[in-house]
């Protein structure tokens, strides 16, 4: 096993907490120091293998017959596994996987991780094509975890038109999941996030022996109640610098909480002060502690600006917002919002998921640098923008607003068209992809022109 998944940030929004009644599950896919180019593809039923081979662990998993078609955002280089990351299937069920989470030595002593098991690189490919509801997704993955085990600790989410379920792996074979209330949202950094848990509720699912595991091994540190984060998670110094501040910042913005960024007991399920839009989710997953001393681009001291790990990072490889809409025909219910690269200088595009192919510039990413590709173009924008954020940030804001407005205009037109054919949706996706690529190229040119006046290699006199 040569590659370990890197850290991400997840956001979930229940249907009554969202602006238009959609369920929203979203995540930043982050990586390590090197770039891991991503692509956007559709996996047809005939492309799904009869047996899935997990590259990192060597595990082989027989798969059910009759898989569904689904969108996928794998890595361009699949030599170390698929890493599908996110998708919406033809039954309009969405899945994002995974959020790398923390655990503790007590758990790993009881149920060690399984080197030959399954993990993030595999989850979407072996679950999403075979489920027709969010709840089914939890149950299928739970069965796979109990059968094969996992070599890492992860959190992941499923959504359909009615429900969102968030699931966390516990040790090598155990798991727990909770239905997110319709009027709530969640911001989940790289820690075990599920807190208060009721084993008797209709809104929880878990491996059968989990309650007994807690009792027989004396794992519950609380005098009253069940808090899975206290039992199975961590509360380390790293959490106070790397994880908790991300939850603190978004909860502060969306719920006006007055908590401390170091707080180890920030709430998991939160009620928003107003309904949350796709644009709000994108803003949250692009944030870097703006208007606080902790903003890496801000005016805090050097130690303040580097104290906490922000949500937007140079390590963002993609952001996806998987929207399942309630008040539209089935053909257009699933919308796979997607942007590649660091989130400070990108914009999400609302791709229809009920298609047979994805647009050029998104489906054809290679490991070789290509500024005509969405992934590499956005990485270029972010690299230049990072050198002088104040100089370029207004251009980035205008760019993102333009992309959003123009893509929504296309979407509104298509939504009202009859009949809603795959060809029509694919043409709309191509139009939006081309719009993004052309405006991103224009932004690059504007940044070059603006940056040219700030070059150190210049002289005030000309002749």
Automatic annotation (TrEMBL):
GO molecular function, one term: cysteine-type exopeptidase activity
A Pfam family assignment: Peptidase_C69
Top EC class, one word: hydrolase
Gene Ontology biological-process entries: proteolysis
Similarity annotation: Belongs to the peptidase C69 family.
NCBIfam families in the record: C69_fam_dipept
Name of the protein described by the UniProt record: Dipeptidase
Species the sequence originates in: Enterococcus gallinarum
């Amino acid at each position: 096993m040569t590659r370990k998944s890197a850290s991400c940030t997840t956001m979930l929004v229940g249907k009554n907490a969202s602006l238009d009644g959609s369920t929203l599950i979203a995540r930043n896919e982050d990586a390590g120091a090197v770039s891991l180019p991503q692509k956007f593809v559709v996996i047809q039923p005939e492309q799904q293998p009869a047996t899935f081979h997990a590259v990192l662990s060597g595990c082989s998993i027989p798969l059910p017959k009759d898989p569904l078609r689904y969108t996928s955002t794998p890595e361009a280089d699949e030599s170390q596994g698929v890493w599908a990351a996110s998708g919406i299937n033809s039954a309009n069920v969405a899945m994002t996987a995974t959020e790398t989470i923390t655990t503790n030595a007590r758990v790993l002593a009881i149920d060690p991780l399984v080197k030959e098991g399954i993990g993030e690189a595999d989850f979407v490919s072996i679950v999403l094509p075979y489920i027709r509801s969010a709840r089914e997704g939890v149950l299928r993955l739970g069965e796979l975890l109990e059968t094969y085990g996992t070599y890492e600790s992860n959190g992941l989410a499923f959504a359909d038109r009615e429900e969102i379920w968030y699931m966390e792996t516990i040790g090598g074979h155990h798991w727990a999941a909770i239905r997110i209330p319709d009027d709530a949202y969640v911001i989940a950094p790289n820690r075990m996030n599920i807190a208060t848990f009721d084993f008797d509720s209709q809104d929880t699912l878990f491996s059968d022996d989990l309650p007994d595991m807690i009792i027989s091994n004396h794992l519950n540190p609380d005098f009253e109640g069940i808090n899975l984060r206290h039992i199975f998670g961590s509360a380390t110094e790293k959490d106070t610098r790397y994880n908790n501040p991300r939850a603190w910042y978004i909860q502060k913005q969306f719920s006006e909480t007055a908590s401390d960024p170091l707080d180890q007991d920030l709430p998991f399920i939160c009620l928003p002060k107003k309904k949350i839009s796709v644009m709000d989710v994108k803003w949250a997953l692009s944030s870097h502690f703006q208007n606080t001393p902790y903003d890496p681009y801000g005016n805090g001291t050097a130690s303040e600006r580097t104290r906490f790990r922000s949500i937007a990072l140079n390590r963002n490889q993609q952001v996806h917002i998987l929207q399942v809409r309630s008040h539209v025909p089935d053909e257009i219910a699933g919308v796979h919002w997607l942007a590649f690269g660091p989130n400070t200088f990108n914009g999400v595009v609302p791709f229809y998921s009920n298609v047979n192919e994805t647009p050029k510039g998104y489906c054809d990413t290679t490991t070789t640098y290509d500024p005509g590709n969405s992934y590499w173009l956005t990485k270029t924008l972010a690299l230049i923008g990072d050198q002088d954020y104040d100089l370029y940030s207004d251009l980035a804001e205008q760019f993102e607003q333009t992309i959003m407005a123009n893509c929504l205009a296309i979407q509104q037109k298509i939504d009202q068209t009859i009949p809603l054919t795959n060809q029509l949706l694919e043409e709309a996706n191509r139009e939006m992809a081309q719009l993004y690529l052309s405006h991103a190229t224009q932004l690059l040119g504007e940044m070059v022109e603006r940056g040219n006046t700030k070059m150190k290699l210049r002289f005030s006199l000309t002749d």
